[in-house]
Amino acid sequence: MDKTNFLFTFTSVHEMEKKKYDMLIIGTGAGGGASIWRLCQKWKNRNKQIGVIEAGDIILPAHVKDVKNGREKKHFQNIAKPYGEGFLQFSGSRQLFALGGRTLFWSTVSPRFHNSEFTNWPISIKEMDTYYQIAEKKLHVTRDAFMSTDSHLTLQNLGIDEVRNTPRAVLNVQKNFFKHYSSLILLNEAYLQKKFDIAINSRVVKVLIDDNQTIGVQVMTVDDKTVVIRSKNIILATGALETPRILLQSCINGNAIGRYLTNHSSVAAQIRCNHKAAKPFQTRLLIPQTTTRPYQLQLFISNRFISITGFGKVEPRIENRVYIDPQHTDEWGISKIKVDFSYSPQDYNIINQMKKTIEEIVSALDKSISKEESAFSISLKPPGDDYHESSTCRMGLNPSTSVTNPFGKVYGISGLYIADNSILPSTGAANPVLTTVALAMRNVDHFVNIYEKNKR
Predict the structure, then answer these.
(1) Same domain membership, residue 249 and residue 199
(2) How far apart are CA 75 and CA 71, in angstroms?
């Protein structure tokens, strides 16, 4: 893959092995990219060494929609691997290692979590608002320029007053061309502020700990070499499936590690249309979660078809979990992970609510649908197919039910932090990327403040 799109240069882990870092960041997805950018901003003029380790290779120079528009799903399926037998209960999930992580493929839909979600969070709504504003500005969250007044009014007539244009992370809107956000953009911006070392194709096997203090990580390279990279401060941002694996492989104790696996239940429907519009049009609408509607609906309406995708709130339950199987290893020689997962009766109730609302919407929009093609079905996607898995290392005030404190620091281990979807105590019904980015920036700010105070 051409590396000319990147302002930074890549470093061999064997070169990194010779150094000692002030901070190592593992993973370059949503949380990792945001952490790197914020840390480089905070340490811009400081003599600090930052290292970044990514398990994957360069698979795309930008978001997939900007380089393979119309073939995004097929490209993802070709690259991401099914997890296999250990994921029969979470069969929709796929493993992806890549520079930029899943931000290369996400929909860019960027709503905030509904305020009701923060009732049981150890963070105030006011503080989240501060970092939501920072994240929205950095991700260039905007509204689509297209709007169908008829569709908007039709939904309002159904009593859905909250319907709005879909917030999306795009850098600009120009002649229908969208520059979709991925963390590759933040990596470039971070490097302009402060240079850092970054190694790819290097998978972290475990965190190395001495007397409850992190001292570095053990890394496996593609040529089966084992390398130790030293740092007293480490941010894990490898995702809600891989991060608990690293903690468990590192023999870190914690009752909640890998527990409370959460995703979104997801339903989808698509209907062919017979709009006789003078010009082709597209409209993206969002029906957000509310206190009485525990789900979110995303609508794409054009002159050719209507696509509706629903994301339902799923209960964080202790029995839904990620765990390792030391008896079986992958091609890296690392213990494979397995999943226990099922939807609760409450989850199925929300799924049925989503289906009913979609049926009502389709019926209300029936004038736009060809009579001979008006039949449609609503499908429930396999668990994990939303790629929104979360909460397996969730933050909280109680170490017996949480893995990290309210600032992403792992309980009982000095210098170890987490900055991905796994720390979310809940996800409600909204896409988690914006919230993960906001939390990563917030937690880096806290780390820097404590770090500087302790150095005085």
Answers:
(1) yes
(2) 6
Q: Is the pLDDT of residue 34 over 50?
A: yes
Same domain membership, residue 436 and residue 369 = no
Same domain, 170 and 243: no
Same domain, 279 and 217: no
Residue 172, pLDDT score? 67
In the chain, how many domains are there? 2
**Residue bearing tokens 């990580």:** 217
Please check whether residues 12 and 126 belong to one and the same domain: yes
Q: Is 366 left (phi over 0), alpha (psi -120 to 50) or beta?
A: alpha
pLDDT tens digits, 181-199: 999 999 999 999 999 999 9
- 3-class DSSP assignment, residue 339: strand
- The one-letter amino acid at 450: I
Residue range of the domain that includes 58: 1-139+182-262+320-338+387-456
Listed residue (117, 114, 118, 109) closest to 136, CA to CA: 109
Q: In the 8-state DSSP scheme, what is residue 213?
A: E
Does pTM surpass 0.90?
yes
Q: What is the side-by-side strand order in the sheet with 295-302?
A: 164-165, 282-287, 295-302, 305-312, 265-272, 379-380
For residue 59, which of 40, 78, 46 has the smallest C-alpha distance? 78
Say what the alpha-carbon torsion angle 6, 68, 276, 269 is, to the nearest 10 degrees: -100
